[in-house]
Amino acid sequence: METKIKNVFVEGAIAPEFIADSISKHQSKTQIGAHDIFLGQVRADEIEGKTVSAIEYTAYESMANQKFHEIRESTFSKFEITCMHIYHSLGKVNTGEICLFVFVSSPHRRVAFEALEFVVEEIKAHVPVFGKELFEDDSYQWKVNT
Predict the structure, then answer these.
(1) What is d(CA 120, CA 90) in angstroms, rounded to the nearest whole number?
(2) Cβ–Cβ contacts within 10 Å for residue 136, how many?
(3) What is this enzyme's EC (predicted)?
(4) Mean per-residue pLDDT for 71-99?
């Protein structure tokens, strides 16, 4: 059965309440023994004497959602996971706020750890999401993923 391509994008920062609610919905899934969570947070990096105040995210949404879908399907084929959720911000996200939320569940912890690392690294390497680092002086530069 082919799974539907999901829209992973959230406008603005990902709220802590959204994250908590996502986690709490899994209490009824009693075959899960482990969850692993990655939260990407915008840093106040200092670059050439200027401090980042926010990142403005843009994406080729249909292409990015397709890539997220491929990563999801690949992860399910490589690891014995029960479920996975990915959410990524679009628009402006201030320093200290969450821009990426990846949530992986599995019967066992080691699998959850390994699957989560795989997902996050694949996202960074292959998904066409772009970040414009906004500085406190209203200048900007395009972020390079590392």
Answers:
(1) 17
(2) 12
(3) 2.8.1.12
(4) 97
What pLDDT shows up at residue 3? 73
Alpha carbon distance 58, 72 (integer Å): 21
Helix (H) / strand (E) element for 138: namely none
- Please enumerate in sequence order all residues whose Cβ is within 8 A of that of 72, keeping only pairs 6 or more positions apart, or say none: 3, 6, 84, 86, 119
| Residue 17: per-residue pLDDT | 97
Q: Provide the residue type at 39 as one letter.
A: L
Angle between helices 61-78 and 109-126 (to 10 degrees): 150
Residue owning tokens 């084929």: 77
Strand partners, 87: 101
Quick one: how many helices (H) and strands (E) in the chain? 3, 8
